[in-house]
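[Automated response] Your request has been received and processed.

Submitted sequence:
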Amino acid sequence: MPSRPLKPGRSAQGLEPPKFYRLIADSIPHMVWTASPDGALDYFNAHVFAYTGRGVRQLAGWGWRSVIHPEDWQRCLETWTRALKSGEPYEVEYRLKRHDGAFLWHLGAALPQREGGRIVRWFGTCTDIDARKRSARLLEQARQTLEALVAARTQALEEGGRRLRAFLEAMPAIAWIKDSRFRYVWTSASYERVHGKSVREILGHDDFEIWPEALARHFRRDDAKALRVNGPVQSIDSVPYENGAAARWLVVKFPLPDESGALGVAGIGFDVTARVEGGRRVGDPQPEGALDRLSGRERQVLRLIVDGLTSAQVGERLGLSPKSVDTYRSRLMAKLGIEDLPALVKFAIRHGLTTAD
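Generated structure:
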């Protein structure tokens, strides 16, 4: 056992992947891992450590066997061995041990990265399918996430920053980078297209030269917060489309050094307008009855979860243990008849249960 845990996002050999790639991997709502050609796991994102409660040295190599349900291990091993020998995609369902001892069903999937026809690494994800074990929607989401990760990693290794930017241009989101003076130094083509602003209007300018003052102040406040906490900050922003129609964005911002070495801010925004404004799904609770079932403390916990705080951060804010926060979250989902965290966030935003501006 190590005397102190390694930071999330480090490999078993102590090699740190490119910072921007690691932040993307840690922001994705899946457990992400990589393995060497012989099948030994050597990298995990932060979600792996949060779910299992174990460190990289406990899971690296073949240590991950300790979190697979004993009844599923042989099938999992045989499937993994076939994939390693054939080079075909790996896909298997198994029960994975959570930090509190509970076993939940997950879909494990992996794709090989090749160089010159030779497999040099495997990229894998674990997706929680316990609530809807054989959901085609979750399977497709996991595959798309995995393919995007392999593409980003391969492009970054082959051609550095230019290829990574090409990946960001193609992803279904908007992205941007600001220098240490909060001036835009790069935006994705999707950013310009969605907001109807040209490169000349954006690059070299700060938000107060581009957006209305109230919106610019909001952006600046989140930028400053990302630098202050020296880590990712999540918010829900209201920024209109080019035609002026209302739009809602799930935004993640994080510190990124500029060319001088000083910290600037980078961001990625995902359009959640359809999820927030769209009609209810089958099984969604009725607003009146659902809200009546929530206590004041449950509403407090829900607001902070929606604002992107971890269980530990919510607990510190409200004087609760992280385990108690997890219990509150499970109770909230049960009361509201909601099966996953994205649906919980959607419900909270629709009914105004968020502290975001």
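Summary generated for your ticket: The first helix runs from residue 19 to 27. Residues 1-17, 275-288 have pLDDT under 50 and may be disordered.
If you did not submit this request, please reply to this message.
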